[in-house]
Specification:
Oligomer: single chain
Strand content: 15-25%
CATH superfamily of the largest domain: Nucleotide cyclase, GGDEF domain
CATH architecture of the largest domain: 2-Layer Sandwich
Radius of gyration: 32 Å
CATH topology of the largest domain: Alpha-Beta Plaits
Low-confidence stretches: 487-520
Number of helices: 21
CATH class of the largest domain: Alpha Beta
Largest sheet: 8 strands, mixed
Number of strands: 17
Number of domains: 4
Helix content: 40-55%
Distance between the termini: 82 Å
Length: 520
């Protein structure tokens, strides 16, 4: 426990030496009287401050309440008929942690944390770390949670609570330290705005607590998720927390929350305890289905928690709203390509890049693939090369080709069969057409959903009551070659592709061999 008198320097100057001495001695006597009864050990006293250690957290909390009560009930010197009695307003900070005796004191960072907690309190207020309140076993009625804060010079976040008791004031301004409300990485450059996709996320979260945002590697999922989450900070008083899920979701969450793992306890349990009563948003990046059970537990144990899961595929959990990142509109696509060129030192702006961006249909991984050539030469040169040999202009089987191969290798056999049919149709197909094409195979609709989920197929709506499912042009080029090199439509869809390509798509094997091209 640390205590001191708020504004003691101004108080001493205003009262004068003699009257301040009376107030200070009376304050010390009352504090020491309570400490003797509570078993507190006075480690150090300097001026108007106390540093006290307790064997038990509950005793420390009881002593803090006792001191504030004693100070309020005591008789204090009067400053005159108009001013009334002078009662010093004491602020108090409590914390529980490991400590080692050293030269009559304690050698531990937790002492500094306790001092910082005290300096964050207002006069008459008792602040404590959540760890101290938990160790004391205080009932909910005795604790008011204030949130996570960054204490000067100390790593991580400290959750602060205010102790409450009958007869003590309860309304105070926020602590004068910076609250920790998010763990979103700073943007290295301003992201291109995509308001349509952000509105889609808003609509999804209006009715769901779990939303998955999926798409191919490099399509901009993470950029969109962070930009959207940053605009939602005001809606989640419990904070917005970003982390890459990895193999240990619990450990990643604790790092994002600024918390340390607890000995002999799973990290996810500690994270659940922190988020159980918080209205918060988690942005889980690079999350896979192996983390589905942990995400499900977070949602069940933390009723006010919302989760945006970003990954290659949905988690397939109950109550999940799935959103696939759509192709950006032309203006946004041109701005994205211009941004890639700017990173490479090229002077091209969005107007210069509009034609090239439209040629790849705004497909973001393709924009990244052509950016190098565009920056080294010009958008016009890159567009000419793209027209002459799309696969070569996109980098062949490297980069974008590897991302497409990985996506194709992850889908089911029926999904590959549907992809085979759709890849031969540059204009796409309606649901009825897909069923007509794939009727001999079971699960065609499920396969179509799977292709949309992994962004190998996009949905276009030329009319409100009509949806067209289409493979983006850059993906078609990488899979079956450009339209100009494809066989006439009279040969049929299968005749437009090599037998090797059809074999690879239908059979569940990874496509990582030579480039798949149509044979005229």
């Amino acid at each position: 426990m640390f205590t001191d008198i708020e504004g003691s320097t101004r108080l001493a100057s205003g009262l004068g030496a003699e009257r301040y001495r009376v107030v200070l001695h009376r304050h010390r006597a009352l504090v020491r009287e309570v400490l003797r009864a509570a078993g507190g050990v006075e480690i150090d006293t300097e001026g108007d401050s106390f540093f006290v250690a307790f064997h038990d957290a509950a005793d420390a909390c009881a002593a803090a309440v006792g001191i504030q009560t004693a100070l309020r009930e005591a008789d204090w010197p009067h400053l005159g008929a108009d001013a009334g009695a002078l009662r010093p307003r004491v602020r108090m900070g409590l914390h529980t942690g490991e400590a080692w005796p050293s030269a009559g004191g304690y050698a531990t960072p937790e002492v500094h944390r306790t001092a910082r907690i005290c300096s964050a309190a207002h006069g008459d207020q008792i602040l404590a770390s959540a760890a101290c309140a938990a160790a004391a076993g205080l009932p909910p009625s005795a604790v008011r949670r204030l949130g996570d804060f960054e204490l000067r010079g100390l790593p991580g976040a400290t959750e602060l609570v205010q102790l409450a008791a009958p007869g003590l004031p309860s309304a105070f301004p926020p602590p004068p330290v910076r609250p920790l409300t998010h763990h979103l990485p700073a943007d290295l450059k301003a992201p291109v705005e995509r308001p349509g996709e952000e509105r889609e996320l808003d609509r999804a979260f209006a009715a769901h607590r779990l939303v998955t945002l999926t798409g191919l590697d490099g399509c901009g999922k993470t950029t969109l998720a962070k930009a959207w989450a940053r605009r939602r900070l005001a809606f989640y008083e419990g904070g917005v927390w970003y982390c890459r899920a990895g193999e240990d979701l619990g450990g990643a969450l604790l790092a994002a929350l600024g918390r340390r793992p607890e000995a002999m306890r799973p990290a996810l349990d500690t994270a659940v305890d922190r988020l159980r009563e918080a209205r918060a948003l988690l942005v889980l990046d690079d999350v896979t289905r192996s983390a589905a059970s942990d995400v499900d537990r977070l949602l069940h144990d933390c009723p006010d928690l919302a989760i945006l899961a970003v990954g290659a595929r949905p988690l397939e959990l109950r109550g999940e709203a799935k959103r696939t990142l759509a192709l950006p509109p032309p203006d946004a696509a041109a701005a994205i390509l211009a941004g890639y060129c700017e990173e490479r030192g090229a002077p091209w702006d969005a107007a210069d890049c509009r034609g090239l961006a439209a040629a790849v249909e705004g497909f973001v991984p393709a924009l990244a693939a052509v950016a190098e050539l565009c920056a080294l030469a010009s958008p016009a040169v890159a567009l000419r090369r793209l027209t002459d040999d799309p696969v070569a202009a996109l980098g062949g089987r490297g980069g974008l080709g590897e991302a497409v191969d990985a996506a194709v290798g992850s889908i089911s056999g029926p999904a590959r069969a549907v992809l085979l049919e759709l890849a031969g149709r540059s204009a796409g197909a309606t649901v009825d057409e897909v069923l007509d094409l794939c009727r001999p195979r079971d699960g065609s609709l499920e396969a179509l959903v799977e292709l949309v989920d992994v962004a190998l197929v996009v949905i276009e709506r030329p009319a409100m009551d009509r949806a067209v499912y289409r493979v983006p042009a850059p993906v078609r080029w990488l899979l079956v070659g450009p339209d100009s090199q494809r066989a006439p439509r009279s040969r049929g869809l299968r005749g437009a592709m090599s037998s090797d390509f059809a074999e690879r798509l239908v059979r569940p094997v990874s496509i990582d061999g030579t480039r798949l091209r149509a044979v005229a």
